[in-house]
Specification:
The strands form two sheets. The protein has a five-stranded parallel sheet, sandwiched between helices. It is built from seven helices and ten strands. The relative contact order is 0.16. The chain has 253 residues and is of the alpha/beta class. The mean pLDDT is 91. The chain folds into two domains: 139 residues, Tetrapyrrole methylase, N-terminal domain (Cobalt-precorrin-4 Transmethylase, domain 1, 3-Layer(aba) Sandwich), CATH 3.40.1010.10; 107 residues, Methyltransferase, Cobalt-precorrin-4 Transmethylase, Domain 2 (2-Layer Sandwich), CATH 3.30.950.10.
Length: 253
């Protein structure tokens, strides 16, 4: 039997890892760390730092193995490309588990934010096949970028007694403001999906590198600061070689 723990580790601040996450990491026999290319080395560096801080240097240590993520095909049908990408990643996971845990054991995967919110790890785990072993999946919840965004801006996620819609930049760009939504939280935006909206009466709370040392926050009326956010986003991406950001939009009366 292989026990795979998908461990939510928050958004880059080691203090955001829960006690349950710490326990799961310390009990693992094998920890798998993905590398996402030269432009995103800080992401694996942060995972390495978390492992060092949580596991220490004394006593029996889990084996830490790094691997390169395959590249998702950017041509053709988006959903089909994602499905193929997930299958390729699952094959890598399974192969590493067969090599390093031939008799079974406990595997830890460090997941940004929480595995349940716009993350592929659970879908990849469904495709996982390890020769000679059954795989049981355990989820350790983590702090999400939306929680850090609202905490840093000191705002609630939803208006009083109102729902909030969580969506992606791609969907916002293609379909516009969700019907009946007062507040819209946007994730996985490649940049500027809010430009497609009629900005009158919309307030935006934006954050990049949430929970990290280079965290950047901007908020205000969308019509006044939308261009400022895009300019700052481009500057930060140029400076660091990558960017992770999210934002909350709300219609103001």
């Amino acid at each position: 039997m292989i026990q795979l723990s998908l461990i939510g580790i928050g958004t880059g601040n080691p203090e955001h890892v829960t006690l349950a996450g710490v326990k799961a990491l310390r009990e693992a026999d094998l920890i798998l760390l993905p590398r996402k290319g030269e432009g995103k080395t800080q992401l694996v560096d942060l995972r390495r730092l978390l492992c060092r801080q949580i596991l220490g240097t004394e006593g029996e240590q889990p084996k830490v193995v790094e691997f390169d993520l395959p590249t998702r095909d950017s041509d053709g049908d988006y959903l089909a490309a994602v499905e193929n990408w997930h299958t390729a990643i699952a094959a890598i996971w399974g192969g590493l588990m067969e090599v390093h845990l031939p008799q079974g054991g406990r595997v830890g995967m460090l997941i940004w934010g929480d595995p349940s919110l716009y993350d592929s790890s659970l879908r990849i785990a469904e495709r996982l096949s390890v020769a000679g072993s059954k795989v049981a999946v355990n989820v350790v919840p983590g702090i999400t970028s939306l929680q850090v965004l609202t905490a840093e801006h000191r705002i609630p996620l939803n208006a009083l007694a109102e729902p909030v819609q969580i969506t992606t930049g791609r969907r916002l760009r293609e379909r516009g403001w969700p019907a009946d939504a007062t507040s819209v939280a946007v994730m996985l935006d490649s940049g500027g999906a809010f430009e497609t909206l009629d900005s009158d009466g919309i307030h935006i709370w934006w954050g990049a590198y949430l929970g990290m040392d280079q965290q950047c926050l901007i908020d205000g009326a969308l019509k006044d600061i939308g261009a400022t956010i895009l300019k700052r986003r481009a500057e930060l991406r140029e400076q660091h070689g990558w960017i992770m950001d999210t934002y909350l939009l709300a219609r103001q009366n």
